[in-house]
Amino acid sequence: MSRGFNDLVAKAGTGAMKKVSVAVAQDAPVLEAVKAAKERNIADAILVGDEAKIREIASSIGMNADDFEIINVTDTYEAALTAVKLVHDGKADMYMKGLIDTKSFLKSVLDKEVGLRTGRPLSHVCVFEINGYDRLLFLTDVAFMTYPTLEDKVHIIENTVEIAHACGIACPKVAPVAAVEVVNPKMPVTVEAAELTKMNDEGKITGCIVDGPLSMDLAICPEAAQHKGAEGRKIVGDADIILFPDIHAGNITYKTLVHTAQVKNGNILTGTKAPVILTSRSDDFETKVNSLALGAVVAESLK
Questions:
Q1: Per-residue pLDDT tens digits for 238-274
Q2: How far is the C-alpha of 56 from the C-alpha of 68, rounded, in Å?
Q3: Over 90: is that where the pLDDT of 282 sits?
Q4: For residue range 84-102, what is the model confidence (pLDDT) as tens digits?
Q5: Which end of the chain has less Cβ packing within 10 Å, N or C?
Q6: DSSP code string of 211-258
Q7: What residue ranges of the chain are covered by domains with CATH 3.40.50.10950?
Q8: Residue range 123-260 in CATH 3.10.450.50
Q9: CA 203 to the chain's CA centroid
Q10: Closest Cα to residue 175, out of 233, 122, 231?
Q11: Which of 290, 261, 303, 299 is nearest to 5 (CA)?
Q12: Backbone phi, psi, residue 121, to 5°
């Protein structure tokens, strides 16, 4: 089981090197991450975009552009379609956002002809290595689904469990969190969390353990669980996956961790035929490399 990103990087480097197709690759932070990923045996890359700009940026960061395949497409959206088609056709294992706005990038992911649709809703997973927590923590959804319905939450769980399995977690514990750990009819989030737990008990959600509603302290703090007398719960401070009620709770938690705690993290879009690396321009270098390692591990698992 992978307990941190060093484990994931090592796991990614054990098999055949994966290949990432980068849409609009003329972006220094992305090229730096791609260069490091190849040096660490995580993934090779096909760089799709303005070749002159790619070579100029590569030279400025000490990267030998000749070490990578470059496909010259100067139009931004055409570059994205070219890059995603490489993954669609099996010529690359994962798809990464470069210097293109998120809306256009996602449009290419969902393209009916060359995109990576599966028929399932897409969702976003952030994987955290947090100093003091004894396992990787998967947060979802913090960036894509705004107000997920009960049906959406089932899909989010399925998408995220697939990622956890790829990381070596055989039966991840999923905590649908709320402000309280008891069902309150006036708080629909708690009702839905209980319904998800029931669906898991009935075998309608598989490959994991679901226990909700849970307050965040019961989900991630064994001492709090003991103090509150929650030993009878299936999750007692040892959750692997935190399922948020909406994008606000998820995004606020994500940014609080990134900016105040000692963490490493990587991000991936799920529900697609192949891993999609969707990082923000504000994400640091290591986050981009970690995301590539996560994508490589998931790509190997999907094979």
A1: 999 999 999 999 999 999 999 999 999 999 999 999 9
A2: 14
A3: no
A4: 999 999 999 999 999 999 9
A5: C
A6: --SB-HHHHH-HHHHHHTT-TTSS-SS--SEEE-SSHHHHHHHHHHHH
A7: 5-117+272-302
A8: no
A9: 25
A10: 233
A11: 290
A12: -65, 150
